[in-house]
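step=encode ok
step=design start
structure_in=
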């Protein structure tokens, strides 16, 4: 008859489970991860509703909402793509509105739309300071953090959809929502 494990063994087993949780990728391969298993995941579910985009790969969204101070697996690379997509969206918007727009005007629109001030405002509006994971000494509401996470979010949509069009759609939606909120203040 098997004897129950001693308290020491049980402690060790518990430590192992805590120290080596199953890898997120392993879970992703088994099917979409449930989006309400933790407060973080619940916040991510709300964020998807706010931006009007549902992720096929929720791990991308988790990564986007993780600052470099918190984990080596963070949204920095996604933010590079998000910034490029935002600039491209703004430049296209300027030229679509006026084929004869001057290079300086198109350039100004692109840099304004992609500025830290604009993306921090959009990120704050969509609730990023309460969602993004940062190290304890890092402020989740600092403009560079909020802006980086917002850009990473745009980049994550592009990767998830394998299309910058989907990312640009989310970018404009956030832009319009933030502008409307600012105008009504
Ligand atoms: C992403 O899109 C490109 C271009 O449409 C396509 O060639 C590629 O196979 C797609 N990749 C995935 C993983 O769907």
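sequence_out=
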């Amino acid at each position: 008859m098997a004897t129950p494990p001693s308290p020491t063994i049980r402690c060790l087993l518990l430590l192992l489970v805590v120290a080596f949780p199953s890898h997120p990728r392993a879970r992703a391969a088994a099917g979409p991860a449930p989006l309400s298993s933790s407060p973080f995941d619940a916040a991510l579910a709300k964020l998807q509703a706010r931006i009007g985009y549902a992720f096929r790969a929720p791990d991308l969204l988790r990564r986007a909402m993780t600052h470099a101070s918190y984990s080596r697996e963070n949204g920095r690379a996604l933010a590079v793509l998000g910034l490029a997509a935002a600039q491209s969206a703004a430049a296209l918007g300027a030229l679509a509105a006026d084929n004869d727009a001057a290079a300086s005007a198109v350039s100004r629109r692109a840099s304004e739309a992609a500025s830290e001030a604009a993306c921090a405002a959009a990120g704050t509006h969509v609730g990023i300071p309460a969602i993004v994971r940062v190290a304890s000494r890092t402020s989740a509401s600092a403009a560079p953090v909020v802006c980086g996470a917002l850009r990473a979010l745009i980049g994550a949509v592009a990767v998830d959809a394998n299309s910058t069009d989907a990312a640009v759609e989310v970018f404009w939606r956030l832009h319009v929502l933030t502008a409307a909120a600012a105008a009504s203040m």
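step=design ok
step=annotate ok -> Residues 11-31 have pLDDT under 50 and may be disordered.
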